[in-house]
Please model this.
Amino acid sequence: MDNSVAERIKSDIESNDVVLYMKGTPVFPQCGFSSAVVQVLTHLGVKFKGIDVLVDPSLREGIKTFSSWPTIPQLYVKGEFVGGCDIVREMYQTGELTEMLSSKGVDVQIKA
Amino acid sequence: MAMDAALIESLIREGIPDAEVRIEDLRGDGDHYAAYVEAAAFKGKTRVQQHKMVYDALQGRMGGELHALALQTSVPKDA
Model:
């Protein structure tokens, strides 16, 4: 992987509490899995930075290497890799996601 | 891009010998699957680590040939 890509990922996940590497944007997700994670985060009222990997092929491959995780979306909280769509969805359903976000000091405001 | 369910199942079983594997073809198009994997080998591992074990068993096909595999892992109750 290009070092500059790794540097960019590091700086993004360090300077934003919640970062979602996704296909498309939070407003227009281009893939059902990315869309599902956006929905969870939106429902929890979590502010996050969405990064569209489709506009940058080096980032699209780079993030997979960086996390050693083969698929996108990928969620990072406070610089730590949380998982992909299935994990986020499962953690949301069990309440672990809310718990984890709160314990890391991320603001959660569940929308009715 | 399509992949046979039986191949997915056998790769997972090969990679994680004690695994109980169930594959569901979500749309009947040979391209969108759900896999439920239960294995004692998952014990004490985080979800990310458990999913990684399954991805490792798929030998690089995940994310490439296999785009849509919804994955759920669990540890057997008596493990």
In short: The mean pLDDT of chain B is 90.
